[in-house]
Amino acid sequence: MDIVESARDIVGQLLDITPADVLSAIIERAEVSRALLSSIVENFDLEDIAENLREILANLDWDLDVHGAVDIILRQFQLDEIMQLLGKFVDELSEGAYSIVDFLDDVMWKFGIVAMFDYLEDIMTRLSIGADELINMLIDSFGVDIILQYLAEIYSRLGLEDVTDLESLFAQYSLYEIISMLGQLMSDLHMTSIQMLLALLEYYSLTDIINYASEIAGALAGISMGDILAAIIEKFEVTGTELAIIIQKFDLEAIAENLKELITELAGELNASEVLDTIMMYTTLAEIVGVLDIIVEELQEISYGIEEFFSEIIWKYSLADVVSYLNNMVNVLKISAEEAFRMILKRFGELMIFSNIEYIVSNFSVDALKAFKVILEECVIDVVVDNLVDLAGALKLSATQILSAFLDVRTIEEIISCADDIVDKLTGLTPGDLLSAIIERVTITEEILLDIVQNFDLADIVENLKEILTKLADSIGIDDALDIIMQQFGLAGIVEFLGDIISELNEISYSIDEFIADMLTRFGLNAAIAYLQEIAAALNISPLEIFNRIIEIFSLDTILGKLGDIFRELTGMNKADALVSIISSAQSLSLTMVTTILNNFDLDAVVARYTGCFARSTETI
After folding, report:
1. Of the candidates 361, 150, 159, 144, the residue with the CA atom closest to the CA atom of residue 254
2. Phi-psi sector, 112: left (phi>0), alpha (psi -120 to 50), beta
3. Which of 540, 621, 547, 558 is nearest to 584 (CA)?
């Protein structure tokens, strides 16, 4: 870089060394990066650069392409400076992949068509080309639309006469007949293809031009169907009726290249959506996809939504056609695969998509799990669950993936309401697994717990009881949660799983005595008597100990009233010990209580505990 900046000083000190020589030596020693080239154009004359242009372009660094390099050069110098050295550029670019035509194309793009007018004859001379070739070069650079706008000026600069005196000849022949004469006419009259096309447009009707567009393109060298259509749009007012004929007569590429102009031209009669619909009416989806990149580029220029265009496509063609080209369309339209899947799901409906899901995922590169989530987002959950077996099989998703998707997309309440059906459809998934996954995702509110107890068996709830109780919301305590569970499943259900419940409660250090007291209080002594043996077994305590628990919880009147039933249930309990417990717990004994004791205990036992029994008797005895 230092040598570049000091090049002129170096040349001043060394005899017979020119700046071009210094530049050549620099290029030979170093790859030309963006920074180096920027320094070169600031420190060397354009003539030095022109003499070394081929070497510069052949030795570019990886981050700089040919057109980018030329753009750096063109930004530094004026058009007049460049055109004065055109001969040098012609000589320098006579060999290599980047030709003088490529260079001039970059120059034209940089400075514009109007700026090039003063240099057209010089370009023809330096390149040894005719007016026809020059005009074709201009068309390649700027497009037929631009050239048509400035054609009169171009004719004038090139010393060509505008052809206006063909009417008498055209009057004698139909367009079909004149087409066969075009080559000879242009040769005799020294006309370019563009000139002849414009002459045809001036004389013949729009219908004739449309009907014979293909033949005209074949007869006029360098003129494409797209050029003819562009000229038609420029010259005539195209209606919706003529649009239909154009679509049938022109190849789709020509239509795509001029789509923006067609939509603009027809704006008073048809909107963009209607123009696209008309085009698709006469073309296959395969044809549309073939020029999709061109269509997208044209639509973006008029700010027409790409997703809206995709929606037009899927509404126009069958599901089979759409799926066949879905990968191509997604790539060109830059729509995500899952969004495209969502749109076809909405378009064709869940039943058609579900029945063809295997065909869709086999032909469309959409992530199976994301596709399933889209289904969950867009479809009624009951319908999804009904088709879960087929969907899981076609999408090759495991039960775990399916469950994860449900939890990601649908509400917990919805999942709980379908819990049984989900478990039935997914092999290897148990209700306990489902409940565990639900608990892992949420904080358990009273509403969610109510949904759980109404839709899951007690066995599944007990299996996950510790997790449920540790994830309770602040608005609900453990006592409240256990009460909801007991209310739903009743004493018989609770007793059946009491051992497991106690194990779960022990893991969170919750008082078992408190739980038993709450349980017996909730259901009452009458209901509890039938389960006293099971409760004692679950607690791993003796019949007497469970009897003592009862005495602590219920009033003595209540217990004495059911004493016979209690004794029948607790067959292994010593009555004398039970009597001691009763007497010890009583503050005082009424006549009724003493009578009950005498009726339920042996007299010897009562006599043996006479003092304790009657010391607590009331004065009325």
Report:
1. 144
2. left
3. 547
* Predicted model pTM: 0.64
pLDDT, tens digit (0-9, with 9 covering 90-100), for 361-416:
999 999 999 999 999 999 999 999 999 999 999 999 999 999 999 999 999 999 99
**Average per-residue pLDDT for the chain:** 86
**pLDDT tens column, 280-337:** 999 999 999 999 999 999 999 999 999 999 999 999 999 999 999 999 999 999 999 9
Residues in contact with 464: Cβ distance below 8 Å, sequence separation at least 6, in sequence order: 432, 435, 436, 439
Tokens representing 268? 């008073």
Tell me which DSSP letter residue 254 carries: H
Residue spans per domain, the chain: 1-111, 511-621
Instruction: Quote the CA–CA distance of 555 and 565 in Å, as a whole number.
Output: 16
Give the residue with greater pLDDT, 484 vs 236: 484
- Name, in order, each residue with C-beta under 8 angstroms of 294's C-beta and a sequence gap of 6 or more: 253, 256, 257, 259
How many helices (H) and strands (E) in the chain?
54, 0
Please tell me the distance from the alpha carbon of residue 200 to that of residue 194, in angstroms, as a whole number: 10
- Residue 52 in 3-state DSSP? coil
Q: What is the pLDDT of residues 201-249, one digit of tens each?
A: 988 999 999 999 999 999 998 899 999 999 999 888 888 888 999 999 9
Contact 594, 621 (CB under 8 A): yes
Task: In whole angstroms, give the CA distance from residue 70 to residue 73.
Answer: 5
- From residue 620, alpha-carbon distances to 589, 603, 612, 614 in Å are 10, 21, 17, 11
Angle value at C-alpha 246, between 244 and 247, nearest 5 degrees: 65
Which amino acid appears at position 258 of this protein?
N
- The answer, yes or no, to whether residue 151 has pLDDT greater than 80, is no
Q: Is the pLDDT of residue 526 over 90?
A: yes
Strand locations in 435-541 (E): none
Task: Please enumerate in sequence order all residues whose Cβ is within 8 A of that of 297, keeping only pairs 6 or more positions apart, or say none.
Answer: none
Question: pLDDT > 70: what percent of the chain?
Answer: 90
Long-range contact pairs involving 415-420 (C-beta distance under 8 Å, separation at least 24): 416/448, 416/451, 416/452, 416/455, 416/456, 417/451, 417/455, 418/381, 418/382, 418/385, 419/455, 419/456, 420/455
> Rounded distance, CA 382 to CA 257, Å?
48
Q: Where are the alpha helices (DSSP H) in 52-99?
A: 53-58, 66-76, 79-84, 86-92
